[in-house]
Amino acid sequence: xxxxxxHIQKTYKNSRGIRVEAVKDASLRLxxxxxxxxxxxxxxxxxxxxxMLVGQFPPDRGEILYRGQPLKYPYRGAERREIQILYQxxxxxxxxxLTLYSSMIEPYRLMKRRVDREVLIEDIRQFGLYAEHLDxxxxxxxxxxxxxxxxARILVMEPRMIVLDEPTSMLDVISQAQVIQILRRxxxxxxxGYLFITHNETLCxxxxxxxxxxxxxVVSER
Amino acid sequence: MxxxxxxxxxxxxxxxxxxxxxxxxTLEPRSKxxxxxxxxxxxxxxxxSLxxxxxxxxxxxxxVLLGGVDLFRLKESELEKIRxxxxxxxxxxxxxxxxxxxxxxxxxxxxxxxxxxxxKKKAVxxxxxxxxxxxxxxxxxxxxxxxxxxxxxxxxxxxIAMGVAAGSRVILADEPTKGLDSDRIQRVVECFRELREETxxxxxxxxxxxxxxxxxxxxxxxxQQLEIAPNGEFFANPLHPYSQAILxxxxxxxxxxxxxxxPPHDVYASxxxxxxxxxxxxxxxxxxxxxxxxxxxxxxVRCWKYAD
Lengths: 222, 308
Fold this sequence. Notes:
heterodimer, A: 222 residues, alpha/beta, 6-stranded mixed sheet, 9 helices, B: alpha/beta, 12 helices
């Protein structure tokens, strides 16, 4: 088992100070090399689950096991690198004041890998990105280009698991198919596990081997 | 009627390739036209150019005739009287075009104050009926709310109500369903179907939305129109290889990725057909010259495959 959430819950206060039970009861599991869908409408709590799995904040109750061991917040060491997230809005992953080149070299430095412009140009080609993109700022790239850049950056970290939080909902259908094709290729090579969060049932079925649904903070398996 | 003739938009910083090239389209009264194509193809720039809402760095040529008046030749003060009155623009971003500091009722009623001389109280009251037309529900409550208190779908419906408030007969809408879940998309679809008297030109990535709302489908790629066809004809028999690739990439058709990534930008300027680097049917002729827009019984396509 790659990751398993057991009866996790999350409550927070909204801007008016009212307590909101975002996740009431969520249990799910994901094997290596598997894509599991988490299907739900806006406000159902699906993104909150994804954010807990990647350690952005801890659950109030319940536990998350990674490779059989309970995860402790904040994540440190291998799990922090191995569990990554790809967001719906790729621009949140990039500093708007840095060129794509400056943003793309960050994970190479974290991984202590040698990088220069030539290395980067070679690496990003498989994501449909070219030298011309490296000198642009995030706001000068299309949604599809920026999402592919976000994915390329995550993959340098050699993740074992990626939470895919609506990664294609802002993209056109060809860009969507391209991102899915890259994800499938990575999974075949590296056996990466994906939790695919989406509101799109057709897409969820087309990409996932198993599907959980979430409604009003409660997760159930189909 | 809105007649768009040979519109070209060029940004001085963008090199040899224009953002929009030789765009021509006639929108008959009450017609619904949907513009599809991937990010960066020029769809949104086209919409903004029609109302001269682009930054000063954009060089725009061509003409846009609304009832015989060329919007590109009007003074800014004259165009201000037309925007929101005879032709409206609904920006993309799930209703993020709303002012976060003003209540919904005031914003939806604002075109009535601006163009019809309504006092503020009467305009806000009128916004209840406008929002009711698009089935917001609890309209009397929501007119007193700020935009952040509404869901993305509700904000989008409020934007549509604002667009038609002063009686605009031409609506330009940019990505009205972007980022919305399927239930909310369906409600936005119902709102657009409600626009029976209005002429609509709508940009979208959402192919289901295009099929549900558009009577005419226009496909754009790398600043050019590649195909223009009636809805049924387009979805039953798309002619351009790019249009075919779009439909094959839909999840229900297996997310097939039958075309590669777009080539580097400078490749466009040196080739014939803009799509030739990704086209599975490419011939030497495709690299020699840009194909003309060919008319096959009202189904127009820019592809050498259909030239003979």
